[in-house]
């Protein structure tokens, strides 16, 4: 079993990319894999704030 992470960057929630992801997910899960999907357009993501934390 593999763990698969999908990052959907498309702004259209019901567009072609979403349909492709749905189809891929069904196939992967039916083959016994675990799929986690993140729809980036729904998430509150910000760029670096420049905290200079050094990493």
What structural keywords apply?
55 residues, alpha+beta, two-stranded parallel ribbon
Model description:
- With 55 residues, this protein is an alpha+beta fold.
- It has one domain (3-42).
- Helix content is 27%, strand content 22%.
- It has 1 helix and 2 strands.
- It has one helix spanning 16-30; strands at residues 3-8, 34-39.
- The protein has a two-stranded parallel ribbon with strand order 1-2.
- α1 links the parallel β1 (3-8) and β2 (34-39).
- The longest helix has 15 residues, at 16-30.
- It starts with a strand and ends in a 16-residue tail after the last strand.
Fraction of residues in β-strands: 15-25%
Helical segment tally?
1
pLDDT < 50 stretches = none
Rounded average pLDDT = 92
Largest sheet: number of strands, sense, barrel closure: 2 strands, parallel
Number of domains: 1
Strand order of the largest sheet: 1-2
- Which class do the helix and strand fractions yield? alpha+beta
- Helix content class: 25-40%
> Count the strands?
2
Report the order of strands and helices: EHE
Taking all Cα atoms into account, the compactness measure Rg is: 15 Å
End-to-end separation:
33 Å
What would you call the shape? flat
